[in-house]
Design goal:
Helix content is 32%, strand content 29%. It is an alpha+beta fold. It is elongated.
């Protein structure tokens, strides 16, 4: 990791660069792939001309065409690798956890940061079976949420998912609800 100037707890905006890898070798790989692409394009153009003059066989033309298509694909792969060398915030959020440090070697797929959305909150709760039995799915039409941090306030929420199978241990049904982040309260996971 070449660039990582983001701290835990820092708010970030969608599109902001959060981290970046060393781009030098990736940029050289793009240049090399572009040179191969141009060379194979010239070879293909020459082969096309020679084929139209009946100097080379169809197999030789097909070979030049295949080499050019492989070079095109390789160039695309190298450009994508270069573009993927920057970690861009996909949404406005809050950096909840930093898993890597500057100058650290990371592997493909290894987490670098945990980013949490701050525009809304998804909460999973367990509904007792007697509530589901008496109210059915109608009970999820009018939801109010309270948090231990602010027990005297309730917030309107909307149901996202209701599990249709109860937990064998607790005999409850999982309900995922979503609510807008209240302006007067900073809600974090685990609250």
């Amino acid at each position: 990791i070449e660039q990582l100037n983001i701290l835990e707890g820092q708010q970030v905006k969608k599109g902001e660069v959060l981290a970046g890898l060393d781009r030098k070798s990736l940029a050289y790989a793009v240049k090399a792939a572009k040179a191969r692409f141009i060379a194979t394009k010239q070879d293909f153009d020459r082969a096309s001309q020679l084929y139209s003059e009946k100097v080379i066989s169809r197999a030789q033309l097909d070979s030049a065409s295949s080499a050019h298509e492989i070079a095109r694909a390789e160039l695309g792969i190298r450009r994508k690798s270069l573009a993927d060398s920057k970690l861009i915030a996909p949404f406005d959020g809050l950096v909840a956890k930093r898993y890597a440090e500057k100058k650290e070697h990371v592997s493909k797929g290894q987490p670098v940061l945990l980013l949490q959305a701050i525009t809304g909150v998804d909460v999973e709760v367990q509904l007792p079976e007697h509530l589901v039995a008496k109210g059915g799915t109608d009970i999820i039409d009018r939801l109010q949420v309270r948090f231990d941090a602010c027990p005297d306030q309730s917030f309107e929420a909307n149901a996202m998912e209701l599990g249709m199978e109860s937990s064998k241990d607790t005999r409850t049904y999982a309900l995922v609800i979503t609510l807008s982040s209240p302006p007067e309260m900073n809600i974090l996971p685990g609250m």
